[in-house]
């Protein structure tokens, strides 16, 4: 569906007619004028330029014949619409949905948006690096430019957004849908957060949904809640003789708000002053360029060579999970347009041994390839490849070459692991933090029951979704309510087991429960022994021996 205005073939033009003799007939002149009207009509770009044809008509038809010897019929000048300087204006010119809809659902969302200027300021700042590319991709598909506002509804234009249902990125792709549209997801990389790949996948998906439902409102609803659910709602209404528009279907609450939000946003972009909103200008020019890296590259080194901060590099490449680009690709990075050429030049002169930092590690008793890989935030496969190993067998004293972060992993604040740590350390008012190690058989459900917390909040504290898989040895943050009053002061206590101690005696002494002690500690057996160190979380305002 193309929403662009009709335009002329660029090879069509009007040639001026030379009147060399006063004996030329008036009929000839009138015929020329008629042809001029036909040709100039195709050069009107939009409704704002409708006066141009009338002006040509007056000058040509009503020009006195006696003066024709000294003049030429005027050449019709094409009316060229000025290129918008601001991306909001560019979106405004491409709006194509029914924005005159004043359904109560729309008006509810509109009232909220109209009261939140700060929200639009944040959205403008976040969208600035991505909006030009998204608009360009939407225009190439001929879709309404309201679709460029979908990431406002989905993620508030946060490329690292992650929902409790497991959706990720600007467009909030679920894992299965992302896979269906070629968005690879592995330890190194998540294509759902890749701005270029995910944008193309989302717009392709929207075109497919529009082709299936024949309606942009239904296509948007299907993007949010799934095409199967929307089709079932349509079938249900049709069987009862009811209307089958989006506004008549019994869809989930989230979906019934989703489409109205987008229409409300379209109304505000169309006429922000009407609703008391000021849209911060976003320049109508490319923000980033793609540069081939030629292989795996440490992100800190890439930031240094490109001349931008490490965080900015991750925000342009949010699909990267780790401290380097993936060993098996994608082998490119997005950098600001004005940095691309110098970055290419620096990469061309970078020695292969400087692409990554390497550490020589000597295998110790109890090591395994997987534990070493986890310790250095890499993969066993990469260690095998670097050290030319056929399998996972290692021996004590063996020397291994391991790629490691050049700047210390804590400085790569936007990697998946560091984002998770930041979330885990976000203080929860009125609770104390328990560092929990996942054991065999654990799930979000079993852990939430042990600590009397909700599954969704447990997942949120750890920047995960309830459906995500837990692995044995994984560290989780649990913000427990504790057993004291609202004035409790909870402190971590390291307790050394004494002779004659039992879990029940220790629990009584510190006013905690045996199950809590078991949750706070990983026991090799069901027995404790003198000298064993236990971690306890104790209300220090309550007396204990």
From TrEMBL:
It is an enzyme of class 4 (lyase). Keywords: Lyase. Residues 359-402, 434-478, 493-536 form the LysM domain. PROSITE patterns: LYSM, TRANSGLYCOSYLASE. It comes from the Bacteria. Belongs to the transglycosylase Slt family. This is Membrane-bound lytic murein transglycosylase D. Its EC number is 4.2.2.-. SUPFAM superfamilies: LysM domain (SSF54106), Lysozyme-like (SSF53955). One of its GO terms (molecular function) is lyase activity. InterPro entries: LysM, LysM_dom_sf, Lysozyme-like_dom_sf, Transglyc_AS, Transglycosylase_SLT_dom_1. Pfam families: LysM (PF01476), SLT (PF01464).
């Amino acid at each position: 569906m193309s929403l662009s205005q009709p335009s002329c073939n660029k090879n069509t033009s009007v040639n001026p007619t030379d009147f060399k003799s006063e004996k030329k007939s008036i009929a000839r002149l009138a015929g020329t004028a008629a042809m001029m009207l036909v040709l100039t009509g195709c050069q009107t770009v939009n409704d704002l330029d409708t006066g141009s044809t009338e002006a040509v008509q007056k000058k040509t038809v009503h020009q006195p014949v006696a003066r024709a010897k000294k003049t030429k019929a005027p050449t019709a000048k094409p009316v060229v619409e000025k290129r918008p300087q601001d991306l909001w204006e560019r979106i405004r010119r491409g709006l194509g949905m029914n924005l005159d809809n004043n359904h109560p659902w729309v008006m509810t969302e509109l009232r909220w948006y109209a009261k939140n200027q700060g929200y639009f300021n944040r959205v403008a700042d976040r969208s600035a690096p991505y909006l030009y590319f998204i608009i360009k991709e939407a225009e190439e598909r001929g879709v309404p430019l309201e679709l460029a506002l979908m990431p406002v509804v989905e993620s508030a234009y946060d490329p690292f957004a992650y929902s409790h249902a497991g959706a990720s990125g600007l467009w909030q792709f679920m894992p299965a849908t992302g896979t269906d549209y070629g968005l690879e997801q592995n330890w190194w990389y998540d294509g759902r957060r890749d701005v270029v790949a995910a944008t193309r996948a989302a717009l392709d998906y929207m075109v497919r949904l529009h082709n299936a439902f024949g309606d942009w409102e239904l296509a948007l609803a299907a993007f949010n809640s799934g095409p199967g659910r929307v089709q079932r709602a349509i079938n249900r209404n049709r069987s009862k003789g009811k209307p089958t528009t989006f506004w008549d279907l019994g869809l989930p609450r989230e979906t019934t708000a989703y489409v109205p939000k987008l229409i409300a946003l379209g109304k505000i972009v169309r006429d922000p002053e009407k609703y008391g909103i000021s849209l911060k200008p976003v320049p109508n020019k490319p923000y980033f360029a793609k540069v081939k890296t030629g292989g795996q590259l440490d992100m800190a080194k890439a930031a240094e060579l490109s001349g931008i901060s490490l965080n900015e590099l991750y925000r342009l490449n949010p699909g990267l999970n780790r401290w380097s680009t993936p060993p098996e690709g994608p082998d490119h990075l997005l950098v600001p347009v004005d940095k691309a050429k110098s970055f290419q030049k620096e990469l061309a002169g970078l020695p292969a041994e400087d692409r990554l930092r390497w550490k020589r590690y000597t295998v110790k008793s109890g090591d395994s390839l997987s534990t070493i890989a986890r310790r250095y935030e890499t993969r066993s496969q990469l260690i095998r490849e670097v050290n030319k190993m056929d399998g996972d067998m290692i021996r004590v004293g063996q020397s291994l070459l391991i790629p490691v972060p050049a700047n210390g992993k804590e400085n790569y604040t936007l990697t998946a692991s560091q984002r998770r740590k930041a979330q885990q350390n976000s203080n929860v008012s009125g609770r104390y933090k328990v560092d929990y190690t996942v054991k065999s058989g654990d799930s979000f459900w079993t852990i939430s029951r042990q600590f009397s917390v909700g599954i969704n909040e447990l997942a949120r504290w750890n920047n995960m979704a309830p459906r995500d898989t837990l692995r044995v040895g994984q560290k989780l943050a649990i913000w427990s309510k504790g057993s004291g009053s609202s004035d409790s002061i909870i402190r971590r206590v390291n307790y050394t087991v004494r002779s004659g101690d039992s879990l029940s005696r220790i629990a009584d002494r510190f006013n905690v429960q045996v199950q809590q002690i078991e949750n706070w500690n990983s026991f090799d057996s069901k027995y404790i022994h003198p000298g064993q160190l236990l971690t306890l979380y104790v209300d220090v305002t309550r007396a204990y021996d």
